[in-house]
TrEMBL record:
This is Lipase. It comes from the Bacteria. One of its GO terms (molecular function) is triacylglycerol lipase activity. One of its GO terms (biological process) is lipid catabolic process. InterPro entries: AB_hydrolase_fold, Lipase_secreted. It comes from Acetobacter oeni. Keywords: Signal. Residues 1-28 form the signal peptide.
Length: 410
């Protein structure tokens, strides 16, 4: 049996046994690391070896979405009925520079429907900012035990970008809606080249960091106008960045993400200095988080710390931080296709108030969306407990069923 509990607030763990059944677990705090040695050991247990597969080519066609190489993913822990691959492809960073990005692909076994398996472009939540933190380099694919396997079991192929800088060379532009959206969009082009038998119809679905990315994809598709794009799902998305990095005291918050935010700021704006945000306590384990540690390491490194204990005063007034907030604004631009926005009432990592207010702002700006609120659920349980609803909504979009907006009713 393979079981894991990953992040704070996780009340249900998914255990991979012969039935891949849902089972009730203890409080997350009992399963998360409280020391760095424990965190490192947990990450090492799930890690796959570094291989030359992720090495960027020295030359060649750098068209965004161009497939570089592919290989079977025979080293993952998968339920029966699913085959996995890895792909490497060209993408763009936030400034539209060429970058090499990796992804994994999940395809149902069996006979595909006429036209091929429809595609879900998956955008994952925070795994870390260092190269080892790519989901395709994890045995469980990071979200395998949070409902991701339910998509191929439901007859949907999945292409899941790592985001550039995770596994591949160069810094990961963490929490940048443009960079992450490009990686998602071009993963779809690459997977079509790798597996031409797949359907051209696709949707995007993302959680947390990926929830921002999926909404950003919907914005970009307004200009791209891909006729095969059918809609977007944003689950617990960081669509209100200020509320994510500076939540109100009553909202909780997760300050251990802040060193990763500082890393992302430097990746996007090279002149930015993490010391502009982080004080001595905040910088104590920054280098490890930036180069080798992943989510568990970040959590354990700042376990029990508050934002005030690890940051300098007025750090959000920095010009680079203000530029990040402006660039990552969500809900102002028109989107193409239907949009489903999901949040949990007990989410202490991405406060539901910010998600709701962003959705209302979008409605006021003429964006039609469906809004789903799951009372009492924290960050990861919202993802897991809404998977069936996500799949049902996605299949309705692929079937061209009428879309009903909830604007004015939440």
């Amino acid at each position: 049996m393979y079981c894991r509990v990953k992040r704070p607030g996780w009340m249900l763990s998914l255990c991979l046994n012969s039935l891949f059944a849902f089972t009730v677990s203890a409080q997350a705090g009992d399963d998360l690391p409280t020391s760095l040695p424990e965190a490192r050991a947990m990450e090492a247990q799930d890690a796959l070896p570094v291989t030359a597969f992720y090495t960027a080519p020295a030359a060649g066609d750098i068209t965004p979405g161009k497939l570089i190489r592919q290989e079977p993913g025979t080293d993952y822990v998968l339920p029966s009925g699913i085959k996995a691959w890895r792909i490497l492809y060209h993408s763009l960073d936030a400034a539209r520079h060429d970058v090499t990005t990796s992804a994994f692909v999940l395809i149902p076994e069996g006979t595909p429907p006429k036209g091929g398996w429809p595609v879900v472009a998956w955008a994952h939540g925070t795994s870390g900012v260092a190269q080892p933190c790519a989901p395709s380099r994890m045995k469980d694919l990071y979200y395998g035990d949070e409902g991701l396997f339910e998509f191929p079991k439901a007859g949907l192929a999945v292409v899941a970008t790592d985001y550039h800088g995770l596994a591949t060379p160069g810094p990961h532009q963490y929490m940048n809606k443009l960079a992450q959206a490009y990686d998602v969009i071009y993963s779809v082009r690459a997977v079509r080249e790798a597996f031409p038998g797949l359907s051209h119809d696709w949707v995007v679905d993302g959680h947390s960091q990926g929830g921002m990315a999926s909404w950003s994809v919907a914005e970009m598709e307004q200009q791209i106008d891909d006729p095969h794009y059918r809609g977007a799902v944003s689950v617990s998305g960081t669509v209100d960045m200020l509320d994510f990095i500076r939540p109100a005291p009553a909202e909780g918050g997760a300050p251990f993400y802040l060193p990763m935010v500082a890393f992302g700021l430097r990746a996007r704006y090279p002149e930015y200095k993490p010391q502009s945000m982080l004080n001595h306590a905040g910088m104590a384990h920054y280098n490890e988080i930036a180069t080798s540690g992943c989510w568990f390491t970040g959590y354990a490194a700042l376990y029990g710390k508050t934002e005030n204990q690890i940051t300098k005063s007025n750090w959000t007034r920095n010009l680079a931080v203000q530029a990040m907030l402006w660039e990552n604004a969500i809900g102002n631009q028109s989107v193409r296709g239907p949009l489903l926005v999901i949040t949990g009432g007990g989410d202490t990592s991405v406060p539901p108030g910010g998600v709701r207010s962003t959705a209302r702002k979008a409605c006021n700006n003429g964006i039609r969306l469906a809004f789903r609120f799951y009372p009492g659920l924290d960050h990861d349980p919202t993802m897991t407990n809404s998977v069936k609803d996500q799949i049902s909504w996605i299949k309705a979009r692929l079937a061209d069923e009428p879309f009903q907006s909830d604007c004015g009713h939440f």
